[in-house]
Amino acid sequence: MSENREWTVGCRSYSRTMTATATATIAPTAIAATTADAPPVVGSAPPLRRVDSPIGRIELIGNGSAVVSLTIERDGSLPHDGDKERSDAVLDRAATQLSEYFSGTRTTFDVPVTLRGTEFQKEVWGRLGELEFGEVTSYGELGLSTGRATAGRAVGGAVGANPVPILIPCHRVLATNNRITGYSAGNGVPTKVWLLNHEGIGHTE
After folding, report:
1. How many C-beta neighbours within 10 Å does residue 6 have?
2. CA–CA gap between residue 12 and residue 109 (Å, rounded)
3. Which CATH number fits domain 118-198: 1.10.10.10, 3.30.1300.10, 3.40.190.10, 3.40.718.10?
4. 154 within 8 A of 164, measured Cβ to Cβ
5. If you average pLDDT over every residue of the chain, what do you get?
6. Is the pLDDT assigned to residue 96 strictly greater than 60?
7. What amino acid positions are annotated as catalytic residues?
8. Which end of the chain is more exposed for a tag (fewer CB within 10 A), N or C?
9. What is the mean pLDDT of residues 7-20?
10. How far apart are CA 197 and CA 43, in angstroms?
């Protein structure tokens, strides 16, 4: 049996709230166990908002109570460029916090996100959500933290499938020698380089 749950992700200092039959605050380490699939938006088109940023336009999609997708512009295009914006309070909050992040006045997010993925993917995303601003991890360390020390390819796939980059900071994952091995969001490696430089994270290309 599955339950619809909503959780707020980010650094260890963030609150992470689970919504099911009741609402309770849970520990950061419990995120992976409580992440649920994003419930479908019923009826009208889902909330949508776009945000300008130094790495290109950003498209946010919600389900009425949380962010379910964040897409960074690639080659001047976003998936729903033909649709009108129809924001809500959650997306407005996300847009404000993203603008503050890019301007250098915010280092944490407390925007609720609800995600769809496999249990393994959600476990990896939960680990990423615990990374502090400017903190880096490796694919190997992620594998160890999930009890799959030899699952490097699977970890890389889960990192690349992250549906809300920046909010869940998959850009903070590097190879063990601090090299950038790729990035699936925006324009790829150049986008990741910008984010790493913005946070003062050392790396090699």
Report:
1. 22
2. 11
3. 1.10.10.10
4. no
5. 82
6. yes
7. 170
8. N
9. 35
10. 42
User: Alpha helix (H) ranges present in the chain?
Assistant: 31-34, 89-103, 119-128, 139-145, 152-160, 189-198
What confidence score (pLDDT) does residue 147 get?
81
Instruction: Pull the structure tokens for residue 27.
Output: 């520990």
Q: Which fold has domain 48-112?
A: Double Stranded RNA Binding Domain (3.30.160)
C-alpha closest to that of 55 among 36, 69, 75: 75
Mean pLDDT on 146-167: 87
CA 36, CA 4: separation in Å to the nearest integer? 6
Residue with tokens 């549906």: 163
Give which of 12, 16, 15, 48 is closest to 35, Cα–Cα: 16
25 pLDDT higher than 60: no
Task: With beta carbons less than 8 A apart as the criterion, state whether 70 and 166 touch.
Answer: yes
